[in-house]
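Hi R.,

As promised on Friday, here is the backbone we talked about, encoded as structure tokens. Could you run it through your design pipeline when you get a chance and send me back a sequence?
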């Protein structure tokens, strides 16, 4: 394997979000753990602190001239992107050893390679001869959420709000207002990407705000929280792995398959739309429902390992 490497292409940033980078980081860590050379190549700005010690390059990789100079015929390629063109996928497929395309929405007609849809739903029908990996056995989780023994924490946070790297619907102020109207003494923690001046102003004696935190800290905040309000993206799988009590909000259309999969496995959960006129009523019911029991999905923890086993095998 010394002559081969895995290259992971993705994107992240304030106008893009951080879900792609989160799951690509998980794939990176699983590959690196096996002693295989791997590099994250990311398009985006102000993301350095999210990359940790992972070998990386921040560049607009969606350029054929860059790809010609950077890639080797023996490379194994993972692409997780909403921005790459079909031309980019074709080039990678024809000029490298093997490709895996992470796809949530059947975005393009992918060339030769493996298609990975890391969603619980498994409902997308791909018109392709390519092998497709999808469903609960291929959920991507960061290693911090897959450990067998995780410390126990007291539930010292009443409500944790985490909507992803960017609050594109400006929901955080609205959610804080709703929670305050329910009980103005709730201890609330907000996790977001870059903290704007408007977000800074929301901090009080009862409201803490964190930005761009690492996986371990995120995991511990979840474990310390009685209730969690989150987006319906990658974070729902982390909630399921930890058996957290959470209320997911559908924020963008590409989260619909996550919603469908969640409802398939979690009969007792409600997913609400970001613009639901009964948002306040739903949150109030969520906080007051003493019979709410989160089931969790234990086998969700093995998805990242399953993916890399399938893609790389013994190389």
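Update: got your reply. Pasting your designed sequence below so it's all in one thread:
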């Amino acid at each position: 394997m010394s002559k081969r490497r895995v290259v992971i292409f993705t994107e992240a940033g304030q106008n893009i979000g951080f879900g792609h980078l989160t799951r690509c980081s998980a794939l990176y860590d699983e590959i690196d753990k096996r002693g295989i050379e791997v590099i994250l190549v990311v398009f985006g700005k102000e993301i350095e602190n999210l990359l940790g010690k992972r070998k990386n390059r921040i560049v607009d990789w969606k350029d054929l001239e860059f790809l010609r100079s950077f890639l080797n015929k023996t490379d194994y390629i993972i692409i997780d992107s909403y921005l790459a063109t079909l031309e980019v996928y074709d080039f990678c497929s024809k000029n490298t050893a093997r490709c895996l395309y992470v796809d949530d929405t059947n975005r393009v007609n992918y060339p030769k390679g493996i298609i990975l849809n890391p969603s619980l739903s498994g409902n997308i029908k791909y018109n392709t001869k390519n092998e497709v990996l999808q469903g609960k056995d291929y959920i991507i989780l960061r290693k911090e959420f897959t450990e067998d023994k995780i410390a126990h924490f007291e539930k010292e946070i009443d409500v944790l709000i985490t909507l992803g790297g960017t609050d594109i619907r400006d929901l955080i102020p609205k959610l804080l207002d709703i929670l305050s109207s329910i009980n103005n003494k709730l201890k609330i923690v907000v996790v977001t990407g870059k903290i704007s001046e408007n977000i800074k102003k929301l901090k009080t004696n009862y409201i803490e705000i964190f930005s761009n935190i690492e996986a371990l800290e995120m995991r511990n905040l979840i474990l310390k929280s009685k209730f969690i309000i989150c987006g319906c993206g990658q974070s729902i799988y982390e909630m399921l792995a930890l058996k957290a009590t959470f209320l997911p909000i559908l924020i963008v259309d590409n989260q619909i398959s996550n919603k469908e999969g969640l409802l398939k496995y979690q009969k007792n959960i409600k997913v609400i739309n970001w613009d639901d006129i009964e948002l306040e009523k739903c949150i109030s019911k969520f906080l007051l429902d003493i019979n709410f029991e989160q089931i969790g999905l234990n086998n969700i923890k093995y998805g990242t390992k399953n993916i890399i086993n399938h893609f790389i095998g013994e190389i």
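One thing I noticed while checking it: The mean pLDDT is 89.

Thanks again,
M.
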